Amino acid sequence: MAQSFATFWPEYVRAHSRSGTRVLHLAGTLFGWALLIAAVMMGRWSWIPGAVVISYALAWFSHFFIERNRPATFEHPLWSWLADQKMVVLMLTGRMSAEVTRCVASGAGESAGGRAS
Length: 117
Prior knowledge:
By secondary structure, the protein is mainly alpha-helical. The protein has one domain. It has helices at 5-14, 19-42, 48-67, 77-92, 96-106, and strands at residues 70-71, 115-116. Strands 1-2 form a two-stranded parallel ribbon.
């Protein structure tokens, strides 16, 4: 089990090794942020839970049906959220594929079927 965000991050990346998983996380996170911002700007407070539900629904769907691993949101909720934000930034800046390659190579001796958010 990860003892710090620095040790959690490579585990998180390995648990998001399939591009389809990352794309659904990206879509969910960006849509969640957009809905949250719209809710605040328009005073539609009832939209805020939807932002959270949609984001997590897409992420969890990707883990169960694409990556075929178990989300670790409840084990490390803050780290999972932070890692998701970091992954989205890396994806938007075109650096996530290199990070996946690096983390997968560094964890080659570890067991498959890790956890994610």
